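Q: Predict the assembly, please.
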Amino acid sequence: MFKRILIANRGEIAVRVIRACRELGIKTVAVYSEADRKAPHIQLADYAYFIGGAKASESYLNQKKILDVAVASGAEAIHPGYGFLAENTSFAEMCGKAGVVFIGPPADAVQKMGDKLTARKTMIDSGVPVVPGTETPVKNIDEGKRLAKEIGYPILVKASAGGGGKGMRLVNDEKELESAIEGASREAEKAFGNAAVYFEKYLEEPHHIEFQIMADSFGNTIHLQERECSMQRRHQKVVEETPSPIMTPELREKMGEVAVQAAKAVNYVNAGTIEFLVDKHRNFYFLEMNTRLQVEHPITELITDIDLVKLQIAVAAGEKLPIKQEEVKMLGHAIECRIYAEDVENDFLPSPGVIKEFILPSGPGVRNDEAAYPGYEVPMHYDPMIAKLACWGQTREEAIRTLQRALDEYTILGIKSSLPFHRALVKHPQFQKGDYTTHFLNDEMPNLLKDIKGVPKDSATEEALLVAAGIHSYRKEIASRERPQGRVSNRRVWTSVGRQEALRTL
Amino acid sequence: MNFEAQIGDKTHLIKVHEEDGACVVTIDDGKPILADLVSTSRGYHLILGDRSYNLALASDNSNYEIQLEGKLYDFNLISEYKKLQKTLRGQELSGAGTIVAKMPGKIIKILANEGEEVHDGQGVLIMEAMKMENELRTPSKGIVKEIRVKEGETVDAGAILVVLE
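A: Predicted assembly structure:
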């Protein structure tokens, strides 16, 4: 087992990995940029190394600097977290060359699943169902028209080097096709330096359902069930839950088998996630594979009772999986909310700044993965997600009740956060029924934001607010008057009194 | 001590004085209420008559941000004394009378004119920051006193863009 691990990341995932290492008796090496001198992750680590400027390219994406720190600190392994260098093939290779274990899959598995078209081809060759679409980039409009007709409208034009919703166009019929291809290509060229586009069938009422897989280096591969991730805003997940409200035991078994098959097709090792799209007829199709630990892993941990980070470290250290597929548990229901430093009323604009009050909920069924504290200044250079809240219940209804209580207890003051949005979302009837697809937030956002403005609805509440603020201001005012102009502090008063007394006794 | 509070579009007069260690608070023409506010490790505890409230509070001069019963509220409360000081110094009368750039960015479009009356939450300018375009809105209703930037200008974080009165 490793004695020292470097965490090549920041924020809540770095905190998460450090906590796991601490429980395993492994020393932790953290790296930090100029903007992160006061960040929670370096406060919890055993060793901390400064690696450069606030911009990610100068620090958290600087492969050479991070490897230099690994060698200098004696770290035997690197955990890359998610984002940054987690799915970077060259970094995984460089680790190997530097004699440091990369806690993740082999570099060639990362590469095979990194390019979407290559991943699709690999899956098709292995008999895994993929979203119907083209095998190669579309060469011209005539070929495009023919292919689109074969697939059947509506279709999505997508950038093959792409991601994050960029270089994507929805086409409902042939009339729209030419401009869609031109528009998507232009956007793809600008965003990824590669104008190649391909087509995919656009599924009706799609659910984004992903399967967690875990494989050791002895060929043992298991899945840890699904996560329902259709609650997305602009293609970014905001709430995840497990099990999926539309899943059946038969579908789970089928999809689980396919997920394991997909992982085996690229000789996968360590933790990974297979993403599927499921249509309203419960047909499922491979979308892509993420060759890393995901943000939403806590909900899987809550229902299976398995610590995925510890398992990642064990597998990387050469250990066998301690559990067989038939031994994987599925207990209760778990839901996670991603807490962002964002101004919900202002189009979710990032809201960096100093947190004045930060109170976490606690009690039964509540799990916090946080990277913030009262007085912490949320930097503007990185992803604005500052914490995750995951709640567990024996049933979905109980998990929701716990989540509602926890969201009400959760307090973030001084910066704007997505808490008001989550509070409105968990009360929405469709969410409560578990009846939502990837279209939900797009359609329902205006309704959710309707009552979000902080104006009291009844006189008792208004009275409480005014009285609290009134007393608070009153006491502040009294305190500032007792200290004239703030120039003579209490200490100075006592000093001068002391001097007077001393002089009097002489 | 007297205070003026602006919550939503309503204005209230709040009187606070101390009697035997507890606070007596009167709101507008209401009956005086016996109340006490205690700071705890999880915010504040308010006793109002016979009601009990757990709340979290943060203030920035006269801007108050309070979370009560799982809901977030923000409003203004200023002592009459401070309000008078501000008037004499010619400053904005309501605490949050400015629009400030939270991050460095570029002014794309100005949507209002100096002297124009604006309502709470009205979009006054569009700024590009962190690769996105964002409409910046007024924190309260008032009149646009000063627009300190031009279209096309780049600004630093913390720059005051618009002053309202």
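The first strand of chain A starts at residue 4 and ends at 7. Residues 459-482 of chain A form the longest helix (24 residues).
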